[in-house]
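User: Show me a protein chain along with its predicted structure.
Assistant: Here is one chain, sequence first, then structure tokens.
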Amino acid sequence: MSAASKKFYMHLVISAVLFVLLRFVPAANGLTPVGVNVLSVFIPVLYMWLTIGTDWPSWLAMALVIFTGVMTPAEVYSGVFGSSLIITVIGMMSFSKVLTNTGVIELVVKRAITFEIVRGRPYVFIAMLLGACGVISCFVDVGAVTLIFIPIIAGICNEIGYTKGDPFYTALMIGLFWVTNAFNGGSPLGHALPIIMMNAAAAGGYEISYSEWLAVGVPAAILISVAAIFLICIVWRPEASKFKNYDLDAHRSSIPKLRREGAITLIVFALVILYWVVPVIWPGLLDENMTVLYNAWGTSLPLIIGMGLLCVIHVNDKPIADFRDMTSTSTITTLLFIGIVSVLGTAISSEAAGISVCLNTVLAPFTSNMSMFMIVVLGCLGCIVLTNFISNTVSMLLFFSLIIPIVQAGGGDVNLVIILLCIMACFASLVPSAAVTAPFFFGPEHITVKNTYKWNLIMIFFAWFISACIFYPLFTTFF
């Protein structure tokens, strides 16, 4: 038997042992027998996600959740594949694909790095590039943004004389990593983790709208991105003498024009976003009957219609988007994982399980004398540290289960803390396993742990300090 097979079976045995041992956890302090069943499934599944993978363990988890008795088979199946969450994820990933295919993202990036202000100014160039990354990352899937920006950065650096390992090259790559991570948690537009968190929050009785998430998450992501630019351009200031070789005029002449299909895609996407946010920001816009209808339709309907329009509208005798191509990034493995995470979140938050009550009871002696500020600070710190070594989704779900019951019992702003925990869970860049996009950076060795760990540690501290120690108290005070 090979070493890989031995390791695989070892993890399976450990998962089975965890399952058996957790069956003996006493149903006390509010924890019910159903809650014991849920824990005996949840923790081994988490372990398999971390050590084996997220594909077949997620498939197996469907059956295991049914055995707990916390949900019926119909509820589990509909929660995994039939929820609006899956439709939303497919829709947002599809729009990201079409915006990429129609050249919209490339156009925005090249515009940003060819303004006259960047001529002969390497740190202004870095700021403009990362600023463009932030704008695009607010609306587009983090994977798509990463795959577009990496070759652009690599091409420009090679053109001016910098290669992998040079500080200038490293700074641009790690800056891209930081900014995409910040908006991956800060914006629910095009990003799966905030949508998963919104779904888990709804299962626990906390409704967070798109506009509310954007009102909190985007300002926090902007502050973190500004801190990243400050760290690179003011504190780090990587050697940039070769930037004089950057041919601004040549790059300006290569800027593509906005094609008709790209413009139509932008208009359709903008209408979808307006559908989500305008009625909430401007509640008097709709009369009572239209408000009822709007709430009944939900958030997925405009995505479905928008995708249909992109397949129907033709430019130069071709549809703007091919349905199979636009949905090619929404693989069954991705959707299954997202769906089962949502179901497990519902199971953990269920009153029948009593897990939230138990956590609040057990942790009360330690948190009763803590201020809400300190609870949030420590919760965010634990989340951002752990997420740099394990799955973002697992870290997010874990700290949601640990911290939110305490925040609710203490009368804190639950929705605000939920959003901040998601941002912390997404800010992972320390090691190759830190985030879904980490292999794009570490795999081809655009960056290495050795040449980034110092700046990564500083930036992780900045992200935590800005979110928990500055943004949280300011937001609760003024809003």
